[in-house]
Each structure stands twice: as C-alpha cells, then as structure tokens.
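Lab notebook, page 48
Experiment: co-folding of the full assembly
Goal: obtain a model of how the components sit together before planning crosslinking
Operator: M.T.
Materials (sequences as entered):
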Amino acid sequence: MREWKLTAVLLLIVALGVAVFLSIRLANKAAVSGFGMFTESLTGQSDYLIRPKAGDIPNESLSILRRELGGIPLGLFPVFEISGTISGEETVLRVMGLDLVAMQNVANYSQGVAAPQSNARGDDSGPSFLERGDLVFSGMAFSEAREIAVGETFILVLGDRRIEVEMGGILPENPNLPSIPENLLLVDLPALQEMSGRIGVSRIEVRFPNGEFRKGIEEEAAAKLAEVAEANDWLLETPAQRKDSVTQMSAAFRLNLTILSGLALLVGTYLIMQAMEAAVIKRRAEMAVLRSLGVTPAEIRKTWLLEGLATGVIGSALGVMIGIGLAQGMVGAIGRTVNTLYYETTSNAIRPEPGEIAFSMGFGVLASLVAVLVPARDAAMTPPAQMMRQGSPGGGLVLLRKRWLGVVLVLIGWASAMLPPWISVSGSIVPVGGYLASVFVVVGGSILIGALFRPVAKLLKWLGQKGSALRNYTASHLAKPAGRHLLTAAGLAVAIGMSAAMGILVASFESTLTAWIGQILKADLYVSGGGASSVENRSTLTKDTWQRIEAMPGVEGADVLNQYRIMIDGKETVLGASDYNDDPSRTLKMIWLNPPADTSERNLLGPEGDIYPSWISESFSRRFSVGKGDSLELPTPVGVKELRVNGVYADYGNEAGMLVMHRSFTREWFGDDEVTQMALYLREGEDAERVAEAVRGEFPSLQVRTNARLREDSLRIFHQTFAVTYALEGIAVLIAVSGLGLALAGLLIERKSELTTLKSLGATRREIASGAMTEGLGIAVVGMAGGLSMSFVLGWILIDVINPQSFGWTLTYRVPWSMFMVLTIATLIAAGLVAYVVGYRNAEVKSDQED
Amino acid sequence: MKYWLAFWTVMVSLVGACRAEEWSIPKVGNQLTFPRDHGSHPDFKIEWWYITGHLEGDGRRFGFQATFFRLGQRPGEPEPEGAFRSDQIYMAHMGVSDPERGIFLHEEKLNREGWDAFASTQELDVRNGSWTLQREGSQMRLVGGVRADAGWELLLEPTKGPVIFGEDGISKKGPDGTASSYYITFPRLKASGRMSIGVDEFEVTGSAWMDHEISSSQLDRSQTGWNWACLQFDDGREIMGYVLRTEGEKFSPYSKLVWISEEGELTHLTLDDYDWIQGGDWTSPVTGATYPTSPEIKVPDLESGKRRHLQLRPVMAEQEMTAGAGGVSYWEGACDVYCFDEEKVVGRAFLEMTGYADDIAEKLR
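Observation: model returned without errors.
Model output:
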C-alpha cells in the first residue's frame, strides 16, 4: 500500500471515530434541549421558575404571590402547559397557556423578547382572543405540516375532551430565539383553563426588570422569592436548574450513548496505533540511516509524535464535518426515544456548538497521540543502519506482550466494580465504578487475548494438515504474533466485546420486561386519554367518562389509575393513585421484590392515624433510598402527608420511580376525581376488540388498546430505545474489520521478500490470497474468542453494576446466543473476505514490481 | 419585525369595537359620592387615574407621571370574579424626568383584570403589576417606577378638593352627548416620600395633581387630539386648561380653561376668554412627531382682573411617552410656568399633548 493511501486510511479512521463520537453527543444534546421550556421560543428566558411540588398552582395563589412581593417590580408570568393532540393524529402536542395580554410586558424584563413597540394603530379586523375563547396560535411549522391556515378550525383533544378550535394566527419567528417547535400550540391562558377544565397554572415564570438598579432588585427579589416559595411549599429554580433536573432523568440513557460512542474512538485508537506501527516498520531503514547520521532518538520520537498530532488534527477536523452531518440524521431517533421514555421534547435542529466540537477534536487528537506514543518509542529505539538488516520485524508493542499487566488490569477492573456509585450535586447517580471496571476489563482483556494466538495457530496447523503447505506456512505466522497481530486482534476484541455485552444487556432487559409485562398486563383492555405518551403527560379522563366506560356492556370491572407528577427531596417522581377495591382478586397483582406483609383491604385503605399506606417501585426505592417499613413525606395541595412504605415492587416502565397509594386518599388531597388510565376486565367470552370498538365509538378521543396490542407497543418502544445502540455496535465492528484489512496489508508489505520467494517457488496469486485469508481468519478468531469472553464480564458489569445503579432495575442475566452466532459468522465472513482481497491485491502488486 | 407588529396589534385591540351606546354615559345632574366614586366604574368604557407632580430632594428636581387606565372590552354583565378576566384591560404608564441628567424614563404595563391588575369599585384602590395607588387614611399612597431604572413610593395629601369639572358634573368634549366625562380632580397634593433613579436614592417632597376621569367616549368624531395642561401657581391657585384639536389644527369650541381659587372654587372659561398659542416645536427622534412643547396662554386673571401672558417651558424637551403595546404615543412633561408680565417663573405645570404621533381619537372614541 502506498504511503498516501496509508495516510488517507489513517485520517479516515480518526475522522470516523471522531464523527461518531461528536454526532452522538450533538444529537443527544439536540434531543434533550428540545425539552420544553417552550416559552423560551416565544418570549426568551426567564430568571426564575416557581413550581408546585404536586398538582397545579391554584389561580388564587397568584395574587397572594404578588401581594407578598410588595413593590418589588418583578414580572410574574404564569404558564399553564398541558399535552394534547389533534383528532386523528398520533403526535403529542404541547398546548401552552400564556396570558396573551400580560405577554406585552415581557420586553421590559431581562432577556425578555416581545412584540416590538409600534405606533401603528390596532387593526380591529381580526378576531380577538379577548372576545373568543376558541382561538389557538402556532408557529409556521405547525400550520404547514397540518395544512391548517388562519381562520380554519380543527378538533383539539385534551384528555377525553374534544374542543373545536380556530387557528387565530401564526406566531412569527424571532431570529433571537429558538425556533417555535412544530408541536406547540399557544392559547390564551384562561381559554386553556376553560378548555381543559383545570383551573390552575403549571408554573410561574419570574423576570427581573431591566435597568440600572437591576442588581439591587435581584438580590432583594431572590431573598423574598425564596421566602415566599418556602412559605407556600413551592419550588424556586432557575431555568438552568430546571433543565438540569429534567434532563437528569435521561442522564443515564445519554451517558450510555456517549460511552458507546467513545467505544468507536477506542477501537479507532487501536487502529491508529496499528497503522502508525506499520509506518514505523516500513520506515525502519530510513530511521536507521537517520540514526547513523547522528539524529538523536529524542528527535526521531518528536517527528513521529508530530506526525501523530497532524493525523489527529486533520482527521478530527474531517470527523467534525462528517459528525455534524451524521448527527442531523440521528437526532430524530434519539429524540423519539427520549420522548417515549422520559419527557416531551421536540427534535431540534443540530447546533454545532464550539464546546462540543472542541471536546471531540481534543478527544480525537489525544487518541491519535496516545496511539502514536508506543510506535514512536519503537521508532526512536531503531538501531543505527549498520546494525540492522533491512526488513527485520519490529519490536512490536511491548505493553501488549505483558500478560501480567493484563491480569492486573482485569483484577483492578473487578475491584472497581465493587465501588459505590458517585452521586453528583444535582443528585444524579453515576456508576463510576462500573464504567471504570469496563475500561480496565477492556484494556486488560485486549492484552490477555495475545495468549490465544498460539492455540489458534495450532488449531489452524492441525486443520491445515490436509490443506496446502502455503496455508500451513502462513498460519505459522500466528504462532509468533507480531505487534500488529496483537493490535488487530485487540481492536476487534474490543469492538466485539462491547457489542456482545450490549447484546447481553438488551437480551436480559427484554426477557425481564417480557416476563414483567406478562405478569402486569392482566386486564383485557387499556384506556388512556388522547395525547398521552409518557408519564410526563397528564392527560385525564373525567369522572363522568370513566364511569360511563365502566358501565358499558361487556365490561365486568375496571381498575383506574391517576398519575401526578410530584417533587420529593427536590427530585421529580410520579405518584400513582389506584383503585383496586372493586375486586380483591385483582388487588396488588405486581411483581414484589419486597412484598407487603398483608394485602388485605385494611392494609390498602386503613391509615394508622395520620400515616397512610403506600408502596413503591424499585427505582423509587433506589432513588430516594427508602424501603419497606420506612416513612415518607408526600407534598400535596393540602399540605405534607406522611406515608408508610408497605412494599417494593418491580417496575421497568419508569426510571423516575413511582409511589403508589389508594386513590381514595389522593382524590381528597388533590381535589379531583379524574383518572389517567383505566384497565378494563371483560365478562367471560366477550370479544376484546369488539368492546374496544364500542369504547372508541363513544369516546373517539381516547386511546383504547387491547392487551395484545399494548404488549406489542411496549416491546416496540423498547426496541426503539435501543435502535441507536444497534447502529453504534455495527459501526464499531465495521471499523474493526476494516482495521483487519489494514493490518494484513501492512504485514504483506513487510514480507515482500518472503512473497517474492514464494512466488518464485510457484505460488499463485490465489494461493497467496488464501494464505492471507487464513491469517486474517486466525486473527479474527482470536478477536472473536477474546471479545466474546470479555462480553460475559462486561455484560455482568452492565447488568449487575451499572444498570441497577443508574436505572434502579434488577434484570435477569440472559445471553443472546443466536445474536452471538450471527455476529460471529458475519465477522468471520467479513474478515475472511477482506483478508482474501487484501492478499490477492498485494500479491499482484509484488509480482508487477518483480518484473 | 413587521410580522410581530401585525400579530400583536390584531391580538390586542385595546378598546373593543363595541358601540358606545351600550356603555353608560355620564348623566347630567348625577351626584358623585365619595369615597365610592374614587373607585372604579366598570360600566363605563374608559377610566383613568392620573397623577403628575414635581419633586425635589437633595438639590435635584424630578417630574413624574403615574397613570392607571381601565379599558372596558365589552359592556353588559361583568364576568365572574377570576384571576384572568377578559372584560377589562388595565394599562398603566409611569414616567420620570430628571432634567439635571437629561434623562426621561417611562414604562407601560398591560394586564387583564384579575390577579395582577384590578380597581376596586368601593374606593380608591388600583393596581397594575407591582404598581399601586391606594387610599391610606386621608392620604394616598403611590408605589411605582420604571423597570429597574427608577422607583418611587409617595404619600400624597390633598390640600384642597376634590373639584368636579364641567357643568352639572359632566365635562363635555363635543356636541354629541356621549363624548363627555365625569372629571374629578385633586388640584394640589402635598407629596413626600422617596425616589430612586438608578442607584441613587432621594428623600423627596413636592406637589402633585390628580385627575380621575370616567367616560365612554373621550373625543368627538371630528377631533384629532388635545393639548392639556395643569398649572399650579406659587400663590396657591391652579389652572386646568385644554384645547381640543379638530382637523386642520383648529380648536374645538368645547375647549376649556378653568381657574381654581385657593379655596377650590371653579371659574369656567371658554375659547372666547383665553388664547392658546402653540409654539416651541420639538420633533421626536422616536416617533417623528412634532410637538409644540412651549405653548403660550393668554388668560384673564380673575383676581387682579388683568390679562396674563403665560408660557409653559418644559424642563426638558424629550418627555414623550412612546407607545408600548397600548399603541398610544403622547408627550407628557413637567414644565415651568413663565409669566411675561412679571418676567419670572410663577408656578409649575404638566403639559400633555396627544394625537401628534398617531390618531388617538381612533383609540378613545
């Protein structure tokens, strides 16, 4: 392979690694930043947010807040945000209620962007939201996507309510603000309260006035706000804190993605090391001459490091460009996952942030430098020309030959897996020990697999007894593997190991989830409000609706569930309120990790004095460090209530955790008799689909799913979640296999003289190619075997260390044998093909040169 | 930018397109009762509580304006009590002039009736955001400011009044009976309190003027705006006077000037009795409108019987309230009252000029 080609491949490897890493990070960020401080796209950012710990902030509290602030000139902007959908559509809409009159004041406050001041006369020709309660407003994207023009009407579905609304106007984009999300509808606040039947607001955005004395007002106001929030049991946060606390929910998921993308770069590092080593070997003669001419080893090393640096910088720059493009394609997929699992977000356009770009570039350059360190040392140690014979094989990577180091690293890895997780200031749990363990196991394991070469060589020799002498001869190379062999196998092993480990995680997850769903989903039909997709959405069915459904023909009984978002210890979680009293046989059909001692009605419904019975999910238990028998303080609109935890159950649907209690209590505390979900049990012999049709017929805005359909949907969502993961694994393996080709090419160039001899002995191109294939397969087998062995350990770390720590889920260990089989066969075929092609081409080049 | 403008102006049409007939109109001979009539009259379309004044502290001089507007959106049954009502909109304007530093600051707030803006129908208690005007014993307390640039809290004590302008208790603005108002004024209030401008804070004292005007139509169709002034003489008397402008810059015969004696007795004069001579043009760099900021007024002095030649001289030219979403730009500024006869300043005044930057009649008709 020519020099420039090698350089090109080297650059491409770095570029690809950096591209994958950057694109994942950017796509991640875009997906998360889509999370909804939707007001920002209309009016700019606020200084503080006041939120209730549970339920809504009642309207009456607004005037109390203003009164308590006295003359402090703060802008208070209540926001009422709910989710909904358009009749006949699946997409979830963010319906935002703002006081459209008060929004005029926004420009007087910090960072506020509002209507420009004008002297133009008002135009009374259009309808006014003051006169009409059915006007909604949206950005251009919404209107275009649905072909709804100003003045046209459509049906907005909020929970079980269907409201005919009219498009009152298109909100203009402001170049200084994030673009208006496509799924955002703006409604005058009181109109939205009327439409939804909920008289309250979700939060109050607080803004400081602009001006010279702003600093003084800020201090006074912050102190006063804190005092008022405390007195009313509200949360006071800055938008940054709010974003943090929300995005923290998906932090574990995103961290996993980042680490997986780091993997691509890690494999890349191995490959760069490999290519650099090849270059060192190729230019040994040159080095030797330089040494003879008096160039010091330090200078030679410097030259090589410079080359590594240049490769890193150019390759990373290339990678950044590719990465931005890739990210654009990925953000949709990640956004959908975050949407389904965590909270409402809009897939935003990728913003190539300088910070992220610098980080990825730095990572790429660093990896290149690390990769070139060892070969540079080798180059510097090249003896002077008179002492070396041309073409003598390089010393190889000394480190990769130190088996004891591998053993030590694996042991350190095992020890770090025992470390407790690190808990950040914001309360997010990072399983540092688990990640450290993975890194140690990966690096240690890739050293240890060198030991596999000898048995694999023996195996090939044994197989080769019946084959050609040439193939046999090539296999013998494997018995004494060069540094290049070791590196290639290590790179492959890392890629295979990590992919297979993810495979184990997914398989374990899937089998646990399937079992859980089977246990949990016992009802025949499930009903929920329109426009609800995740826990975040509280889309409700009114009492009248759910009672009518309960009384429909064919329905024997129903369980109803109401969910509230609540704050405990400053962290967001979910309160589930359930009626299980209709049929004792259905009571608490959960998978108990720590079952209640007594599941009688008394246990469910009987408070002991002022202490109320409850039970919690596993994630809740881990997040809040409470267990069975502990007590808990629950914020409610009527004050803090004390709960006793009677049991802990398994729940894989929600990593924010869930606290469950009987609905009879919450109905009173939260003052509503609405529910978010219903589980219907049908009479013996009833056709579920027929009843589902009947419910849909009467309540077209509701989502009605049969048991089978819900199971299907759950698994579909599950696989959707891992879609990005699958893609990443593919990329890692792809990079590793191409590295194999690169390594073989280098080896063949190195053995130029040998090849010439072989050819003069009558070896054909095909024979040489098949010899290369044997060698390539040998390396691949070593990599596969090493990688798969590693994956069992990595899988254990993922399932027993990282997963419980970051998600709070206990999974049963499952190995996806069929996936392993496919992976093995695919990798071997690819490796064999690549090796054959490389061998064939190199054989030709050599003979040409010979003539 | 244009789109924003179009959008928001359609959104907030300050005064609904309803016909005035459906609103109450001031009735001749109606007896106003206090403190109730210092409060709000939601059956009328337009109402405002207007305070201007001159303050001094630490050798510095300030002029200030604080106006709370109530703009009815639809007549008839009021909406039930609630945090977000749509039947009344409250607009408020605050302004402060600091002639020494040459700074004029102003802000507008717009809110619907409810949690953040309201006016009591029992007595004086008006609120818009953090700005408030309330009765406090025999005094009033005004809390206001301009963003984080200025802030004030003043106690205002009436030294006379209230007086009610107009014949039979209504002030007529045109031949059509609907263009009229109830017009209640405290012509002289003793002001004290604190005023902060930027990071400086001052103990201030001074005098203020308060109008409370209630109507359903302020201007007649043919009128394009007004020039209005309140003059407080050092001798304890006041003048409230205005000219209503019609197309072609003519003055409507409904223009008025009223002398208020030290004891609070009123003498009404018409255009036959006084002259209002526009002058001292200043062009706004913001709106491009040209305002006659130094009008001369020739008026008989009822005490001396002599005709006095006065001129209002603004403490600074730039005292224009440029429009916010409310969409009304006008000039409202502190002036000295110069007397040509005596060749000296004989009092202080506030001058208001509307209809120069835009068609105010459209808004207030």
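Interpretation: Chain A touches chain B through 55 residues (CB under 8 Å).
Next step: discuss with group before ordering constructs.
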